[in-house]
Amino acid sequence: MRRDCLLVQLLLTVLAMAGSSAQGTRIRGVVRDRQTGEPLPLANIWLEGTYRGTTSNAQGEFTLEIPSLPATVRVRYIGYHSQQIPITATSPEVVEILLQPAVVELPPVVVTGEDPAVAIMREVVKRKQQWRAKLQTFAAEAYSRLSVANDTAMVMILESTSCLFWDGKRGSREVITSRTQTANVPKEAMIFALGFPNFYDDDVDLGGSKFIGVTNPEALEHYEFALLGRRRMDQGIVYDIAVRPKSKLQPCFAGTVSVLDSAYALVAVDLQPGGALQLPFPVQEWRMRLRQQFHSFGQEFWLPVDMQEQGEVLVGVPGLQFPTMKYDRLARLIDC
């Protein structure tokens, strides 16, 4: 009798533990530099064994949904050692992640003849063509936030979640699943919050213009590449490469790209469109900075995980000039 009671209690305990481990949770955290305490924006955070992840904001903060416990969260930032964080039912709701800078102790690069960046980018283009040929389709959930302000106040805020679909033959499309916006924004304005460009594409659609991507099969004919420096990322080396169009007449980008040496893959870009950007009336000037990170999720395919766009738009007509509008848009994949 007593043995039966103990057995029942044991079974109930095991079931309760199993039920607890199957329950999901939401963790909040902040990513900082271990030495300085400074927040690390756009850190790459994902749930190991899945494609679910997010990025930290400008203050290094993030939120991540975890379907079941226990789980392991991995945090990565270029120039730092990655860190694995075990998450259990007893883990704190808010976690502070301190990443250790990775010191690069390498001999200086001596450039004689062709810049080393040219050979690196030649291999990046070659590798991309190989794995892109195997990538048939891709689907993901995305979150996007657009804020617009003028010189005196915030003008509007748009937020949306969407499903992104990419097909090797038919291209990409996006379906909005939810949206919120400030009361002063008409529903038609949501069109400006859409779009998740992939800067790993051969050609990139931007503002109604098509630009030659930095990994286009003919990129070496349209771009000049120069090695700026090297950083560590775990056991690998990341090459920072300057990108500049060979001709101002070509629709190209300028800025920097970061390449992981072991895979010859883009891990980040920081770009601005060249002078070929078409400006719709009555836009007189449009300056923008575009940043994106890529991750392989343990596979051979390198996919974008976020997109940050900051810009200024000057609008006016003869005899009438409007205040400069500043905008900030963050889009990130939350599951794929």
In short:
The protein has 336 residues and is mainly β. The protein has helices at 2-22, 116-132, 219-222; strands at 25-33, 44-47, 53-55, 61-66, 71-76, 83-87, 94-99, 137-149, 154-167, 171-181, 203-206, 209-212, 223-233, 236-245, 253-260, 265-273, 283-295, 303-304, 306-317, 320-321, 325-335. The strands form four sheets. Strands 8, 9, 10, 13, 14, 15, 16, 17, 18, 19, 20 and 21 form a twelve-stranded antiparallel β-sheet that branches.
Tell me what you see in this structure.
The chain is mainly beta and 336 residues long. It is 12% helix and 49% strand. It has three helices and 21 strands. It has helices at residues 2-22, 116-132, 219-222, and strands at 25-33, 44-47, 53-55, 61-66, 71-76, 83-87, 94-99, 137-149, 154-167, 171-181, 203-206, 209-212, 223-233, 236-245, 253-260, 265-273, 283-295, 303-304, 306-317, 320-321, 325-335. The strands form four sheets. Strands 8, 9, 10, 13, 14, 15, 16, 17, 18, 19, 20 and 21 form a twelve-stranded antiparallel sheet that branches. The radius of gyration is 23 Å and the shape is globular.
Features:
336 residues; 21 strands; twelve-stranded antiparallel beta sheet; mainly beta; four-stranded antiparallel beta sheet; 3 helices; globular
Can you lay out the helices and strands and say which pair or pack?
Layout: H1 2-22, E1 25-33, E2 44-47, E3 53-55, E4 61-66, E5 71-76, E6 83-87, E7 94-99, H2 116-132, E8 137-149, E9 154-167, E10 171-181, E11 203-206, E12 209-212, H3 219-222, E13 223-233, E14 236-245, E15 253-260, E16 265-273, E17 283-295, E18 303-304, E19 306-317, E20 320-321, E21 325-335
Parallel strand pairs: 1-7
Antiparallel strand pairs: 1-4, 2-3, 2-5, 5-6, 8-9, 8-21, 9-10, 11-12, 13-14, 14-15, 15-16, 16-17, 17-18, 17-19, 19-20, 19-21
